[in-house]
Write a structure and sequence with these properties.
The complex is a heterodimer of chains A (268) and B (461). Chain A has 268 residues and is an alpha+beta fold. Chain A contains five helices and twelve strands. The two termini of chain B are 39 Å apart. Classes of the chains: A alpha+beta (268), B mainly beta (461).
């Protein structure tokens, strides 16, 4: 049954097509194309001859259509043949023609619906919310209250002291180097490309040449200790100054002790 | 036990006198050999006319050169007769007693074996000319007594007079069999004068007698342990560059211009204490390229290096015997470093010093028979004095300096004549200065006074 009725419909369509083809061949003005497939389709513009007479028309624009958060855009609309006009997104029923300021916080598409006696149509306008440009990327995202690498090294790293003619890390030096390891990690976070010199120094006793080797062993001993604590070895450079750069020059144990040290300085 | 040992090139000429030096040494360094010193009576030279203004400089230079040669016994001028000859024609044997006869100088109280006399004048063509004479006072016949007589011309300036004095002294020394190598030699050292930064030093150079001190380099770093090539043309040294890579490394410059020669340094925390081989083609040095410092040899540009030692004792300061390239000295040991000996392959290591105190800075004598070095034997740690050992009997030594209180004597090196030693002395916590002395510890002379002056080395030119 369903098939038979279908055949009748097909037959009627063919006949109608032939009639229309014949009419075309007689050079009469062509019929306008059929209206949009649905009434909620694309915007309807004035002069759109697709609409039959009396069909509602509508336009909706946003000016400007790109704003930043906090700014406003103006929606303007016109309609014809409508007796019920409304705009979505909380605006509601509006007059047939009008203008309204909107301040959306996100990109919003407004849809105007115009309903008249002969139909229904819609128009849309989108207000795009743009983000303001970000500030310039700082060189160091963390604040650097101590200033330069040199001042950080001088203020945060403590000397490690040694016994006479010795290179082993004694207790007070261990405490200093534990603190130094944390400070070095902070410094390397703030100055990723920094190199720190681990300087080995000696007191004035012993020959200059002997003390050059002794200072090298002291700086290596301190470097190895720091590396065990997680300080990157590649960022520590050992330098022996032997007894060439004393802190003091008195011939007493107090001065000798000041000079038997590992000292840190900023490299390049 | 005392064992006379002869050094110096003139020993075959002079007669035998053994002179003991130091406090109870195990052996005696005999500077003058087996014959005693010629006793020279050197008159106070005078100049005619315009020449007189330069005679003080002339006389000071002549006497210093003769004194420093260690070859002569210069007789006190207070013993001289009232008059003296100025020209050979002034010699009059018949006027004995007035100073014009040679016998006036041979006898008491002068007791001179030779009379040195003459005068200077400015010639018509504008030259300062010295007429110098040396006569043997013990020979009666004047012609036979003449050892030599010669004229020495130069510019009419103080520098000209000094140059003439050097030349005359050199001829006298040579006539008595001595070596003149000292007179053209120069001493190089580091100084903080005209240097960059708190710790900066540059290499300076001066004549062997301390004159004409001037800066040689402009390296803007901190320099230590310069050493000079056997021909005197190059200096190698340890330098902490004043750059972004401040680890100590080896540098090399021309001894004439101070300009740098390229030198390849190994990747290491230390490249230091270089020394030249006797043929001047290679460098030995200490490097931590294999973690702990070891002795390496390399070509003179630092390339093709080769590790010689594998010890745990922090070996440093390699020194090659100038007469035997297969005999090397170096210093190693923790807490009481000592001087060791090995062969050119790094084998056959044996300790040279006896294990007492701290021993450093070994320096070969030019003939390769003696080693001068700094030692704390008998003193507190760090109180170094200069000692000399006989390489043939290394347990025997002679102490050349005897520092009292706070005095350190370090870094000895030998003069080309094998008679003198230059070294660094620090007195009463003052700035270190450069001194020279004879290899028996006598005739100590301070050469520098300004700034901090260290690490002397004596070059042939």
């Amino acid at each position: 049954m369903w098939i038979r009725n279908r055949n009748l419909t097909q037959t009627a369509s063919v006949l109608l097509g032939l009639a229309l083809f014949t009419a075309g061949c007689s050079k009469r003005a062509p019929l306008p194309p059929p209206p949009a497939a649905s009434n909620n389709g694309g915007p309807i513009t004035p002069g759109n001859t697709a609409n039959p007479p009396g069909f509602p028309t509508a336009t909706l624009t946003a000016e400007p259509n790109r704003i930043e958060i906090g700014q406003s855009a103006n929606l303007s609309w016109t309609t014809t043949n409508a007796n019920d006009v409304s705009i979505s997104n909380g605006i509601g029923t509006v007059s047939a023609t009008g203008r309204q300021s909107v301040s959306p916080t996100d990109t919003t598409t407004y849809t105007l619906t115009a309903i008249g006696p002969n139909g229904r149509t819609t128009a849309t306008a989108t207000v795009t919310i743009t983000s303001p440009p970000p500030p310039p990327t700082p060189v160091n995202t963390r604040p650097n209250p101590m200033g330069t690498l040199s001042t950080r090294v001088d203020s945060e790293l403590k000397d490690a002291f040694f016994d006479y003619d010795a290179v082993s890390i004694r207790e007070d030096a261990r405490v200093s180097l534990l603190t130094d390891a944390d400070a070095l990690k902070r410094i390397f976070q703030d100055f990723p490309s920094a190199m720190i010199n681990v300087e080995g120094h000696c007191d004035e006793r012993g020959s200059a040449e002997y003390n050059l080797g002794l200072g090298d062993r002291r700086s290596s001993s301190a470097r190895d200790f720091l590396v065990q604590l997680g300080v990157p070895a590649a960022k520590l450079r050992t330098i022996s100054y032997g007894k060439e750069r004393p802190q003091c020059t008195e011939a007493d144990e107090a001065c000798y002790q000041k000079n038997r040290r590992v000292h840190f300085s900023a490299g390049q | 036990m005392k064992k006379p040992i002869i050094i110096g090139a003139f020993l075959t000429v002079v007669t035998a006198v053994a002179v003991l030096f130091g406090q109870n040494p195990d052996f005696t360094v005999n500077i003058v050999g087996t014959g005693g010193k010629p006793a020279l009576a050197v008159i106070e030279f005078r100049g005619a006319g315009a020449a007189q203004q330069y005679m003080a400089a002339f006389n000071a230079t002549l006497n210093a050169d003769l004194q420093d040669s260690a070859l002569f016994d210069l007789r006190p001028k207070s013993f001289f007769p009232k008059s003296n000859p100025q020209a050979a024609t002034d010699l009059r044997p018949e006027d004995a007693g007035a100073g014009y006869a040679l016998q006036d100088w041979a006898g008491a109280p002068v007791n001179a074996s030779h009379l040195v006399f003459g005068y200077a004048a400015v010639t018509n063509n504008g030259l300062f000319v010295l007429n110098g004479n040396v006569y043997d006072t013990r020979v009666k016949d004047i012609q036979s007594a003449k050892m030599f007589a010669q004229n020495y011309p130069d510019a009419v300036t103080e520098a000209g007079a000094i140059k003439v004095a050097h030349a005359f002294a050199a001829d006298i020394i040579q006539k008595f069999g001595g070596t003149t190598s000292l007179l053209n030699s120069r001493i190089y050292f580091t100084s903080n004068r005209e240097a960059t930064g708190q710790y900066g030093t540059e290499i300076w150079v001066m004549d062997w007698d301390g004159k004409n001190q001037k800066r040689l380099t402009s390296l803007k770093g901190q320099i230590a342990d310069p050493t000079i090539s056997p021909d005197g043309s190059r200096l190698a040294f340890t330098i902490w560059p004043g750059t972004s890579s401040p680890q100590p490394r080896i540098g090399m410059v021309s001894s004439d211009t101070g300009r740098s020669y390229p030198f390849y340094n190994q990747e290491a925390s230390i490249n230091a204490t270089p020394t030249f081989t006797p043929d001047g083609t290679h460098i030995l040095y200490s490097s931590s390229a294999s973690n702990e410092p070891q002795i390496y040899s390399a070509e003179i540009n630092g390339r093709n290096f080769n590790r010689l030692t594998s010890t745990k004792g922090n070996p440093t300061e390699p020194k090659v015997n100038p007469k035997n390239p297969d005999s090397l000295l170096f210093v190693q040991g923790f807490q009481n470093e000592q001087i060791y000996r090995m062969n050119a392959e790094g084998a056959g290591i044996e300790r040279l010093t006896n294990g007492e105190g701290e021993a450093s800075n070994p320096a070969w004598s030019p003939d390769g028979k003696f080693v001068a070095f700094a030692w704390t034997r008998g003193y507190q740690s760090g109180k170094f004095n200069i000692f000399v050992i006989d390489i043939g009997a290394p347990q025997k030594y002679q102490q050349l300096t005897h520092g009292e209180g706070y005095e350190r004597n370090e870094n000895p090196t030998w003069a080309p004549d094998g008679i003198h030693i230059v070294f660094m002395r620090t007195v009463n916590r003052g700035s270190p200065q450069i001194y020279t002395m004879l290899a028996n510890g006598t005739q100590v002379k301070q050469l520098t006074t300004q700034g901090s002056n260290k690490y002397p080395v004596w070059g042939v030119k």
